[in-house]
Design a protein that fits this description.
This protein has 514 residues and is mainly alpha-helical. The chain has 19 helices and 2 strands. It has 2 domains: 207 residues, MFS general substrate transporter like domains (Growth Hormone, Chain: A), CATH 1.20.1250.20; 199 residues, MFS general substrate transporter like domains (Growth Hormone, Chain: A), CATH 1.20.1250. The protein has a two-stranded antiparallel ribbon. A hairpin with a 2-residue loop joins β1 and β2. α2 packs antiparallel against α7, α2 runs antiparallel to α9 and α12 packs antiparallel against α13. It starts with a helix and ends with a helix. It is found in: Membrane. One of its GO terms (molecular function) is transmembrane transporter activity.
Amino acid sequence: PGAAAMEETKRPAAWQIVFLQFLLILSGAVGIPVLPYVWTSTELAGGDKVKGGSLLSLAATINALAELATASLLGKLSDRFGRKPFLLISILGTALDLGITSLSVRDRSDYALRISNGHVWMFASRTIAGLCGNVLVFSKAAVGDLSTPETSSRNFGALIGSIGVALVVGPPLGALLSRNQLQLPLLVSTGTSLFAALLLLAMREPLQKQHRAPIDWRAVNPFGALHFLVSTRFLIVFGVMSFLDQFALVLLTTILLPFCAVAFNMGRNLITSLLVVFGLGQGAAYALVLRPLVRWKGDIAAVELGYAITCATFALMGALAYTQLFWLMFLVAGLLALGTISGPAETALASCSVEKSEQGKLQAANGCLDVVAKVTGSFGVYLIWEPSARAGHPGTVWWFACLVMLPGVVLAFRLRRLLAPRRYEANSKDADGGCGVEDVDDVEDVEDVEDVEDAEVVVAQGVVPASRPETFKAAMDQAPQKQVKSDGLERGAREAPLYKPAKAAIWASLWGCI
């Protein structure tokens, strides 16, 4: 016991991992506004804006494929040997990628540090960074290792919040640093990553030795985690929608700036100001729209609004490509920022729709879906962007995005039926539960709120709590609190009963939604 207590005191605090994650996301976000122009300036693109966007999407595809190839292996190795070594590998891979990118810039001839054939080096560095893994996977695991059932919700909320802040601050900062040159924001990004690596070296290993697991080599499968998402009807729908969320984000970060440069023939400084609007708008949407909407109408309403706005905005962008009304793109940036409210609400609904012991599987499957969406989104842009832009139709990529997002809109407006709870039984022994109920009338066959007073009801574990009617709050407060361990992450949550329909019924429901 004494040795265990001593090891516990040597471990880092969760806020240290949160701050480390903030620095790493910030380092990548600062470079977002300049990456399209870096690829345009390479010898391969030769200043061609269309070719530069195509190369950027190809590099993103290669990076995502490399990440997918090693994600499962690195995750298993971190369970066995600890989080710190693989956090360090991932950070150094990111720093190497950013450093090589900064040396490949050719927009000016007076840079003291530069390399020739920069496009070759950047393709190589993008591949290496992907093989080194996604730092977010290891930071989430580290926060789980350092959390107790009482602090896990707060710690994970802080981690997700730090990512949001970095994505809000990073692009505007990169846009300001790039007003006179492209290399400066990338050098700042590289320095930030190296600073994060130094901080990590000063930290202790967060995973205790008694919690390290042996490696099951049969489970090292890049797509193995996705099997979990076909276990229930709602999780299938969540998987589709999570994929579409990441797909939309990939399109925005990959081709938005090249699109504006080609469609409206605008300069870099004016175009990058769109990212400032998007970043500030995203922060405002979370603070001023998401939280009040969830309290008023529930998580499902936020998902519906987010998907509808995103899909409609993609269609608007496709139409604007045939005009010269660039000023409307600032309205578009604000609408796209508002559409991002679907992500946190969607995560909350998914988290409250699985059992406590399956939270780790949910996060692993969601991470796998993110990588798959990166691959398909960036490769789709690569296939569509250059041919359509050279044919005089640069907005085609947004029509494509609108069509891809349309099933997500349909599914969003079907969530209420998928999650409509059946009659609650005492102690939830045979009950099916739901999330995001707005009114007692939404609960089928419940004649009195007393029917649920003794039920173990669902609580969303997302960024924002799922909205519940006042009549249910007392019952939720009285619901028994249980503590479990899920894949090494200690979680404290109330019971979340699962839908378990037959496989045929699952697929029939999904195709019926679409």
